[in-house]
Design brief:
By secondary structure, the protein is of the alpha+beta class. It has helices spanning 3-6, 9-18, 48-61, 73-84, and strands spanning 22-27, 32-38, 41-45. Strands 1-2-3 form a three-stranded antiparallel beta sheet, with helices on one face. Helix 2 (9-18) packs parallel to helix 3. It starts with a helix and ends in a 10-residue tail after the last helix. The mean pLDDT is 88.
Length: 94
């Protein structure tokens, strides 16, 4: 894992705490699961950065965030980057 990612964990946790969330960690053999809870909302991520991102999605889009029509932005950006950088194309679909 990139050191720059790990160094951003503390700021991410600081932001989560400043939003009023309680943070828990569940440890498993191969990974850990980070949980942020505030009121009735519980958000789960695999590290502090994913947790912060998912908190933002939940806060911005609400409880029904999976039903929001966002289009296929991920594939759009992957294709766009591959087109703009033909020497470094996007990985093939798995």
């Amino acid at each position: 894992m990139s050191a720059s990612i790990v160094t951003s964990y503390d700021p991410a946790l600081f932001v989560i705490k400043s939003k009023g969330y309680e943070i828990e960690i569940e440890f498993y053999d191969e990974y850990e699961r980070w949980i942020a809870r505030r009121g009735d909302l519980a958000v789960f991520g695999f590290n502090p950065l994913s947790l912060l991102g998912l908190i933002e999605v939940a806060e911005t889009l609400g409880d029904q965030w999976r039903q929001v029509d966002t289009g296929d932005l991920y594939d759009h950006f992957m294709d766009q980057c591959a087109d703009e950088n033909p020497d470094n194309p996007a990985p093939p679909d798995s």
